Amino acid sequence: MKKKFDHIGIAVRDIDSSISFYTNVLGGKLVDHYRSEAEGVESEIAIIDIHGDRTELLMPTNNTTSPIARFIKQKGKGVHHVAYDVGDLDAALKDLEEQGIRTLDWSLRTNKHGRRLIYLNPADTEGTIIEYCDYPNQ
């Protein structure tokens, strides 16, 4: 199964300051800025495009239950995850199961842009949070 880089997710404490850095210093363009209170997300999200490459800035909106808040508390701000477009998420999940790679089942969802996604268990990925995603309606 062919995989290609989709985006990188960055955990931040101050999304407005981060947007300013990514747009003014790195020359990116703010594509979207929204808040998601969905269980397992609970974050304010800004999508930045830098010459065709996407960065998601993720700021927790609930410091008790947000996985981004937990991440920042444990590891500090910075790279949270790397995402790969797998073309067909259902087929990719079958491949992962055959290879004995676990996913974080609670993270399976479709976001507001129609991207289906799931996180792989970092215990099986050398400690890196990896997102598999697809765009079934595109």
Automatic annotation (TrEMBL):
GO terms for molecular function: metal ion binding; methylmalonyl-CoA epimerase activity. Keywords: Metal-binding. Belongs to the methylmalonyl-CoA epimerase family. Pfam families: Glyoxalase_4. This is VOC family protein. Residues 4-135 form the VOC domain. Gene3D superfamilies: 2,3-Dihydroxybiphenyl 1,2-Dioxygenase, domain 1 (3.10.180.10). InterPro entries: Glyas_Bleomycin-R_OHBP_Dase, MeMalonyl-CoA_epimerase, MMCE/EMCE_epimerase, VOC_core. SUPFAM superfamilies: Glyoxalase/Bleomycin resistance protein/Dihydroxybiphenyl dioxygenase (SSF54593). CDD domains: MMCE. Signal peptide: none annotated. It comes from Halobacillus yeomjeoni. GO terms for biological process: L-methylmalonyl-CoA metabolic process.
